[in-house]
Each structure stands twice: as C-alpha cells, then as structure tokens.
Amino acid sequence: MCPSRCLRLAMLNADTSIPNTYATMGTFGDILHHVLSAAASRISKDIRIEHEVFDVVRGEWPPSIANFDAIIITASSAASYDHDSWIRALQEYVLGIYTQHPDVKIFGSCFGHHLVCQALLKDCGVLVEPHPNGWEVGVSRVHLTEAFRSRFASLNPTSQKIPESIRLQFVHADQVVFTQCQTSSDFSQSSLPEPWTLVGSTEHCAVQGVYFPGRVLTLQGHFEFDKFENQQTMRIFGAQDFPDDGDVMAEMVVQFLLSMRGCAVEDEGIWRRAGLGSEPLTPRSSMEIV
C-alpha cells in the first residue's frame, strides 16, 4: 500500500441534522467524516481523511477544488426538484465538477444521490419524483446488481466477489426513476448509458444508487447512521431499529474514494467483513470551478 495516504473531502452540507444528533455529533458532513475515518482505519492505518464542511444552503463553496480529492453531497430534508436557488446552484456546481475536474470524485447520500442523478443524468431520461408509496424508513436489504458487483470488485483485483445484498438504514420519500421504463421491474443496466451502472434495489425503491467507475458513486441509503442516530431518527418516524451493514458500506465508499488514484487498497478485510471469503458523458456547465 502507498505510505500515508490522505484523502481530502469537501463536505457540501445540504441541511442540519436533527437537534439531538447535531448537538452530539455535529453536521451531516461531520458525521460522514467520523464514519469514513473509522472505516479507513479498519482498512489501513496508513489512510487519513481530512474534511471541510461547506454550508451550501447559505452559499458556502470550496474556494478551490484543487484542495480536495472528492466532494460529498449530504442528506437533506429538501427535495432535489424544489426550486430553491441553493439547490439549482448545487446542481450546477456538481455538473461543473464532473465536466471540468475528472480527477475529483463525487459521492452523494440520499438527497445527494437524487441531486447527483438529476445533475448528471437528466438528459438520459433520469429524474427525481415523490415515491407513490410514500416513505421508506428503517432497515431494508439492498440487492446489488451483478454489473455493480463485478465493476466495483475490480477496484481490488485480489478481492473475492462483494456480497449479493447489503442492509442499510433508510429515511426517504423521493426516488430516482428512469423515465423510459414503464414499471420498476423494467429497470436494468441497459437503462443507463455506459459506463454508468445501477447499484441495486430494494422492494420499495428500484434505484438505490448509481456508479461511474472511478468518478461517481451515489447511495439512497444511510451507511453513516450509527446506533445513536438510528434511535433519534426512529423516534421521529416510529420505525423499528434492526442491525445493518453500514460499516461494510462505509469501507466500500472509502475504497471508491481511493480508487484510480495510484494507490489501490490491497487489504482484503473489507471483503471478508462483507461475508465474502466507454467514454464519459460530457454535459456542459455554465459554472467555471477552480
């Protein structure tokens, strides 16, 4: 492994966590940093993660993207299709990063998943809308697609296959949909342009994330929710708390953030803990990002 690798993350904070969680654990960006740092240390003691939080709702942006390896768009109570000016600005910013800075990775969680899909795949028939069946709350099992498992496993040639499914926490009422599909059963790898890949699905929601190898990863679920935050969220929504695989997914996100940066992660612990033994699209953006 490369000696002492530091990942620098720009946390684009899109909301404030619920009061008890904020008082104890800070912003969504702080929570993600804590969980990802713990995951990185389990993979290798040589990986260090630094972060800076930007309140994009109030118009805060990284002064220079050259200072960061990745941007992370957090969860939010807002909807990505709302007409708030900060949401439109965030969408333009994400598109600008994608088109102008291919070495900077993009990760989106929940609202961030919706926003990234809306920003980068809208011209491909992908949109975000309220789920007709309402909320998905609590722990659900995400069935990972074979295409995602195969492509993600290639990040570590020495690894075995990643799991067929993974349990994550959910709190969302919106969904990403492929407009060319008549029903959720029609969703497939062919619904996305290469090299984009559908991450997986649950019984409630067909699009649980998208993946562009080495560049973009989004997840509908929350790997960052620990036991305390689960309890606070479940108290609000009245759902039951069950065990999840958040730690495994957090390590997978770290693996993604390290991928194709000249420093492959060779530790196989991430895969054991999981129960294992074409050209990019180039949409235009009017926002210039330095």
TrEMBL record:
<dbReference type="GO" id="GO:0005634">
    <property type="term" value="C:nucleus"/>
</dbReference>
<dbReference type="GO" id="GO:0016740">
    <property type="term" value="F:transferase activity"/>
</dbReference>
<keyword id="KW-0315">Glutamine amidotransferase</keyword>
<dbReference type="InterPro" id="IPR044992">
    <property type="entry name" value="ChyE-like"/>
</dbReference>
<dbReference type="GO" id="GO:0005829">
    <property type="term" value="C:cytosol"/>
</dbReference>
<dbReference type="InterPro" id="IPR029062">
    <property type="entry name" value="Class_I_gatase-like"/>
</dbReference>
<protein>
    <submittedName>
        <fullName>Class I glutamine amidotransferase-like protein</fullName>
    </submittedName>
</protein>
<keyword id="KW-0808">Transferase</keyword>
